Amino acid sequence: QVQLVESGGGLVQPGGSLRLTCRVSGDSLARYAIAWFRQAPGKEREEVACIGTGGNYPNIADSVKGRFAISRDNARNTAYLQMNSLKPEDTAVYHCATARLPGYSGSYYHKSDFDSWGQGTQVTVSS
Question: 51, 35 in Cβ contact below 8 A?
Fold first, then answer.
């Protein structure tokens, strides 16, 4: 199993931007799909974005499409979530997670496929 550590969260005003970073250790990120999830108080954890090992055609949730972008840098064993035009409803704890399905390089996974998770970073959007 890999270990994941998120950073980059904080307090931002509506309309602002943040970039979250997920650093992976224990194995090569190139072998895994990686996704960002978020969980707001009293709500279920939801997938925000996922990028497969192929690095193409990431899967972005409709709620953040056009505002958020996921990317990966296998050489640095790091993934990113660029969040623009933030809204108060984006407030949540954001987690990164990895999944591995040998032979599949796409970006569509079931939540149960993700077996390594970071501790999360808090994002608060408020004026």
Answer: yes
